[in-house]
Design goal:
single chain; mainly alpha; Helix Hairpins; 3-stranded mixed beta sheet; 4 helices; 9% strand; elongated
Amino acid sequence: MKIKKLSANAKKVMVLCTMVALLIVTGTLNFVLNDKFDQTGEDGTVVSTQETFFTSCRAERETARAEEFALLEAILTSDTSTEELIASANEKKLELIDTIERELVLEGLVKAQGFDDAVVTMSEDNINVVVSQSELTSEQVAGILSVILAETDYSAAQVVVVPYVEE
């Protein structure tokens, strides 16, 4: 009985497919388990939908970013990737890392203004800020806006501040 050996490319494709499958399973489990465990706290008390919303947003953002990193890593390790594609993937990876760090800093600065929680998402065109308060005063919006404008190159028209309203 002869066993046929897989080529190096076939092995890489199998590893990549396995990694993507594991990433999808991890993301799904993360979402499902976060949803279950976020409904009750460690002491058995019911957690608000607001806390669940912010936790869920962060989990979804992390899952999407993990998928992006996995795809970029696949490009970087592929034998068929051109130097131009590899350079582009490296640049995108560094941009993604910078975006993650900036979002975390901005969330911390918004929370420092007295909000219990905040989620900041950045794109090329705008920044969205969701804060854990059902209504915002013009002073609160101005404070959030001043922090965002001081820490980024975005204009005021590119910043969207949204209060979280529980259903």
